[in-house]
Please model this.
Amino acid sequence: MNRIRDFDETELLVKLQQGDHKAFESIYDVHQSRITAHLMRLLKSEELAKKVVQDTFFALWEHRDWVEIDKPVGAYLYRIATNKSYNLFKRAILDEKLWAYLYPAIEAGYDHIETQLLNKEKRKPTVYTRNNSRDARTPASGLLSL
Model:
């Protein structure tokens, strides 16, 4: 069952809407390789393509009630896969923008804390004791060494 002509798609879609796992598997078997090839062209990553294929067929199962049985399911799957790919690109762009926005704030915040700690250490009174071996004054307790 590798080709669309080998089964009655309308019948499979009716069964899919009824929650038939075998019908879902048949649709998966027929369309999975074409959807993967389509996603490989878009994403240029086998790992990402496999993830989006999985998400695409999961969406088909979750929204099986919305599938129009008089229309080819292949086109529906292509649209889902393409939209999920575009969403992946959008998320990457948003994450990059978010990182570009947050990174300077994180850096400034870290520097601010580090400066406060150093200033606090500088204000501490230093207690001196006699070093028996050299008869020189040395700090009794170690300060933060940077």
Observations:
- Strands lie at 128-130, 137-139.
- The chain has four helices and two strands.
- Helices lie at 9-17, 21-43, 46-62, 73-123.
- The domain at 4-93 is CATH 1.10.1740.10 (Rna Polymerase Sigma Factor; Chain: A).
